[in-house]
Amino acid sequence: MRKSFIAGNWKMNLTVTQAVELAKSLVKSVKDCPHRVLIAPNFTCLDAVSKVLPGSPILLGAQNMAFAETGAYTGETSVLMLKDVGVQVVILGHSERRSIYNETDEIINKKVKLALTHGLEVILCVGETLEEREAGRAIEVVNAQIEAGLKDVTAEELSRVVIAYEPVWAIGTGKTATPQDAQEVHAAARAKVGELYCPKCAENLIIQYGGSMNAGNAKELMAMPDIDGGLIGGASLKAETFLPIVNYDK
Ligand code: 13P
Question: What separation in Å is there between the alpha carbon of 83 and the centre of ligand 1?
């Protein structure tokens, strides 16, 4: 039985004061939640937010990480630095990293392997553009990103990988994939992991949906057999909009 995993990606929003305030209000409300819950503040907020979380089941995530461990990489943040401030999970391969910062599957794969080597959990984001969807290539694109992102990742390491299917055209646009369309891609992604690893590995894999997920659509998305969680952007920035998604089954 897979455990639902609801994650908030705060992206480049919130000052330290605002992030701490939001984290505190989530800590108060998320106590006996049956799901895994994660928040991913930006780098400057990680340390302060980590100090709010002890004793809470809420996990601390980072939104990105350098592909190298240490050294002359101006502006980058190392896996060692993330671990130092208590980060447990890192989001890698987000479409904004791929499209705005030209991160390739090779770079993302380097980051995935480095994070796993250091014991972090990884949320590997994949997803097609509108053009690719309209050309009937959504599954092909997603499966290629999964295969490349997981290159040389062992089956043991895979147990610390979550895949987030985020159709690029649904991110921040208010357009959500229909539960059926998302389910189709999730099922194909799971089958792909089964092919690359083993049936059991595929069965245990958590696959989140991301892209304009909100309180109004979370329940029907989460009702799909292969949708195991959500990676939420805009709606994760306020407790009033994030908590109903965390509590989608209440
Ligand atoms: P929105 O929920 O704002 O569409 O963002 C989704 C996302 O990119 C989460 O990583």
Answer: 24
